[in-house]
Amino acid sequence: MIDKEIKVLDKGYVKLISFMGSDNSPLSDARLSSQAKPDIKRDDGLRSYLWENEHKSTFQSMICQIELKLPLFVLHQLHRHRTVSFDGLEIESSEEGFRKWFSPNEQSGRYSKFEDEFYIPEKVLAQDTKNKQGSVDTLDINSQALFMTELATHNEYGYEMYTRYLKFGVSKEYGRLFLEPNLYTRRRVTGDFVNWCNLEKLRLDPHAQPESRAYAQGISEILKFLWPKSYELFEEYTLHAVKFSRTEMEVLQYLASTYRLSDFDPAITKEWETKLGKKRFESFLIKIGIS
Amino acid sequence: MIDKEIKVLDKGYVKLISFMGSDNSPLSDARLSSQAKPDIKRDDGLRSYLWENEHKSTFQSMICQIELKLPLFVLHQLHRHRTVSFDGLEIESSEEGFRKWFSPNEQSGRYSKFEDEFYIPEKVLAQDTKNKQGSVDTLDINSQALFMTELATHNEYGYEMYTRYLKFGVSKEYGRLFLEPNLYTRRRVTGDFVNWCNLEKLRLDPHAQPESRAYAQGISEILKFLWPKSYELFEEYTLHAVKFSRTEMEVLQYLASTYRLSDFDPAITKEWETKLGKKRFESFLIKIGIS
Amino acid sequence: MIDKEIKVLDKGYVKLISFMGSDNSPLSDARLSSQAKPDIKRDDGLRSYLWENEHKSTFQSMICQIELKLPLFVLHQLHRHRTVSFDGLEIESSEEGFRKWFSPNEQSGRYSKFEDEFYIPEKVLAQDTKNKQGSVDTLDINSQALFMTELATHNEYGYEMYTRYLKFGVSKEYGRLFLEPNLYTRRRVTGDFVNWCNLEKLRLDPHAQPESRAYAQGISEILKFLWPKSYELFEEYTLHAVKFSRTEMEVLQYLASTYRLSDFDPAITKEWETKLGKKRFESFLIKIGIS
Amino acid sequence: MIDKEIKVLDKGYVKLISFMGSDNSPLSDARLSSQAKPDIKRDDGLRSYLWENEHKSTFQSMICQIELKLPLFVLHQLHRHRTVSFDGLEIESSEEGFRKWFSPNEQSGRYSKFEDEFYIPEKVLAQDTKNKQGSVDTLDINSQALFMTELATHNEYGYEMYTRYLKFGVSKEYGRLFLEPNLYTRRRVTGDFVNWCNLEKLRLDPHAQPESRAYAQGISEILKFLWPKSYELFEEYTLHAVKFSRTEMEVLQYLASTYRLSDFDPAITKEWETKLGKKRFESFLIKIGIS
After folding, report:
1. Does C67 touch chain B if contact means CB atoms closer than 8 Å?
2. Please, is B2 exposed, middle or buried when counting C-beta atoms within 10 Å of its C-beta (0-12, 13-18, 19+)?
3. Does D121 reach chain B within 8 Å, measured CB to CB?
4. Higher model confidence: residue B225 or residue A90?
5. What residues of B are labeled active site?
6. Is the pLDDT assigned to residue B81 strictly greater than 50?
7. Res. B129: pLDDT tops 70
8. What is the model's pTM?
9. Partners for A (CB, 8 Å, 3+ pairs)?
10. CB atoms within 10 A of CB D193
């Protein structure tokens, strides 16, 4: 997997550079703190327990460095938290947690010359006029084609100006003002498993911009390869988990209280218990208030 | 509220030193990003929306500095993430997120002499032998009293040694090796609303050690005073929220799918809709799969 | 000073939004840790001592929020550490320390429409062909004028495309691909004194890009207004301080060892002692090896 | 080196658990940003250039996890910044930079029982009564011996109480209130090279408490083993570097201005130039103002 380019978008990639730690690292770290002996039969249970109960620091000695080739606007977007709109007011804010552990090195274009590589989208989305939550796929093919052509032409002209003025002696930092944000650049990012998962959680969201989601999917291939069991825990307890507020829980508990466990087909309750495990099934019933 | 000591435990306190920002700070920050105009009628809705959708950086210009007088062991515990046990294996790990924004100044005892002040618990808990999750309240009164007396005596002797050896010329950093972790110290901590809430979430938990919980409660009085509306959002969407894993959601959705909304008393569904608001009620029904 | 716009570049500004803490905050924090009493006569000495000896956490309860209107490329540059070149190889990397304490909210243009405001430089610098350290001011006036006109034209055309495609229904996140990095945006940043000083140190450097330096100068006006005595310490011990490596110190000490203090005019040594204070003058002589 | 215990103090150790990255990592990261080709002859020069010019993020993909067995008071001290006194006022504050990248897991004693292992110092230092800067080595042997015996007795009695009350059923979190801060515990810390160097800079200082310095020395053996060339740069440009304030530089430049380079023995100036390299020697002369 190391140094293998996983293709993303029309000209980009993600690539594993180096890593440390395995799916077993959280186990030995946790066992140190309680001086317990290794016990293979309980490994999966312990790992799951650690993630579910948010002992995430035990997953922070699993670290990897990834190289990305990506358009500038995606790079800047990876630092931001996307959101839906509020009654026509639309907001986007930084997500601090995400940036904490990263030590990126970025190609800057202040010194080196950028290559003539721009991202041209395969599909151009329309504004979602109903809820303004972002984009939807309803733009006619002709408008899309026109957009792509005009964008490529604008990029080309800008790049020509960039090249011409560099030749005139204009410094690169001024020359690059002609280059649009779909220009490709390269970056290396080092992060631990917990931080990569924070990025995945935000960017694998169906509402995330398709280009960011494409990079999140590329990164997830690397994470699954390196730490398959830990990544599964992320999917179960974080990526696909759903949170209910206090008031929502009140409604849910009222709803659930109209049932008794005995109302259900024993085959089905047995299946639930198997899926979740006996203990978690019990604690689940308590959470929603079924007796 | 500034400089007012809120008593905690037998000899401790928490005290607000200074602050910036109000419940309206997140609103003006969010409206900057979309260049929207103020609109008082929608203030509560927007603030709630921002917190619920995790636009927490808009709450990070609400900052306060708090002074704590607390036993050393509580101070060290505030840096740690408590946990329940796993089949007899018991683990405790750091919670990184918590420490991120704090800039504490602490009385150290390396230079200044500690005063003769030790925390003596009012109630000494027993080990929870069933699930080893921590402590329970089943120790007989006599054992408790004996414990308190012996602890006070041990502290007194240690403090006597500490004083004697300082007089002999032993440096304070060696002298304090005689002092147990229930010694009181003072500390100032500066944090933003989001970080204080992280601490509250961990320490207001019923399983948290009683002494830490007492400080979290003292801090919550300050937070509620400064930012009552934001604190309410923390309670609704974070402190008392409940998360369900992917598999738990499958069971929950199966359970809910056996209902139709029309099965319920319209007065009750009306009440739910009022509590949650129309939009959130709709999205709640979608989350659990009732049509 | 609050809400007062300090003009920067052709259309930008910096503006103080809110703050907490004064030049005296580090004093009371430090005195807590040693339980010392206030002593006005020693205030300046203590503050100076704290900064000089890198007790910077005592300056971290001085916090302010600043709003910036700035071109996108300056915004992105504020996250990066500038450097000179190494034998023709030119590098630019992130400076992690800088980003640590900031909680920015940024206007994104994914939702709100950008206004037609672009930064056009007053002076366009040439590439420094000798040492490639960045830019020098040797470009002829005509080339500069041509550059400015062409850039403005390119911006105008891009903005026209942006507007046209938004009308066609293209979503804002695709539309903005037509907009160059000299587009203006707004951002609010909250940071403590230590972090603002880190930014100042990097961006007030004579080698920093002129546009970034202009914002650093605007910010320094706010910092000097809020905390004049602390800012002076930053200037004395950090901004204008010079570091010598181990080997450089060896050379320096050899050089200095050829002197005795008595070789100098007593009036001059007296002046030095007054400037530095007796104690610091003594420790300075020891540092460089004059006896 | 992995899993090898490096002995520290009477019963402690440091031990490398895992790592990633080599002395060449900063080179390939830096070359990515400028798309330059590898060039072995310039490797040492580039690495040195990166560190000297504070492009430290290129050293942040060199990461290692270290296990420490250490007394509780040393553990807590590793989080704090030591200082000398100011006219009798003595201060100690946190050093935020240090904590940034660490994800420690610590044995807590809330769940697991502590072993009967306490640190007894070999040498007990006296308070430095002259400048109160800490400790000096002037305590008579008899007082030292008495201190050690009394401390061991006090520890023993405390541990006996601890054991007795655990048997009575007192929970571990209360039981451990009997245990002094010279109790040994274990911890694992994961950090990158830059952060480990921050710790080394603070704790290798001759004024640091001897016990902390002992751990810093143990850690330096690991760092030197893993990244010998990078560690040398840390020694040259950071550990043994000396910083002069603006006013000190004025004095220094006055002093130096009385010389011309031609005043010195050419053999000596040749030697300087060789030690520092031609470029750095030139920039050194400019820094101190010799022409």
Report:
1. yes
2. exposed
3. yes
4. B225
5. 203
6. no
7. no
8. 0.90
9. B, C, D
10. 28
Encode pLDDT of D113-130 as tens digits: 778 899 999 999 888 766
pLDDT of residue B134 exceeding 60, the answer is no
CA A282 from chain center: how many Å?
Answer: 32
Inter-chain residue contact D103 with A60, CB threshold 8 Å: yes
The tokens for B81 are 């993430």
Q: What is the distance between the alpha carbons of residues A290 and A264, in angstroms, rounded to a whole number? A: 11
Q: Does B275 touch chain A (CB under 8 A)?
A: yes
Name residue, tokens 């610098």. C125
Nearest residue of chain B to residue C110 (CA atoms): B34
Residue B11 class from Cβ within 10 Å (0-12 exposed, 13-18 middle, 19+ buried)? middle
Q: Which chains touch B (3 or more CB pairs under 8 A)?
A: A, C, D
For the ranges A27-31, A281-285, B102-106, the lowest mean pLDDT is seen at B102-106
Radius of gyration for the alpha carbons in chain B, expressed in angstroms and rounded: 24
Residue D255 neighbours by CB under 8 Å, 6+ apart: C256, C259, C288
pLDDT of A290 reads: 82
Q: Identify which of B28, B29, B188 has the shortest CB distance to residue C32.
A: B188
- D188 has a chain A CB within 8 A of its CB: yes
**pLDDT confidence bin for A134, thresholds 50/70/90:** low
Q: At what angle do helices B278-288 and B266-276 cross, to 10 degrees?
A: 110
Which single residue is written with the structure tokens 């520092």?
D276
pLDDT at A120: 94
Catalytic amino acids of A? 203
Smallest Cβ distance to C181: which of A147, A165, A177? A177
List of long-range contacts for A136-142, beta carbons under 8 Å, 24+ apart: A136/C171, A138/C169, A139/C168, A139/C169, A139/C170
**Nearest residue, CB atoms, B244 vs list A58, A100, A241:** A241
Residue B229 — very low, low, confident or very high, per pLDDT cuts 50/70/90?
very high
> Is residue D97 within 8 angstroms of chain B, CB to CB?
no
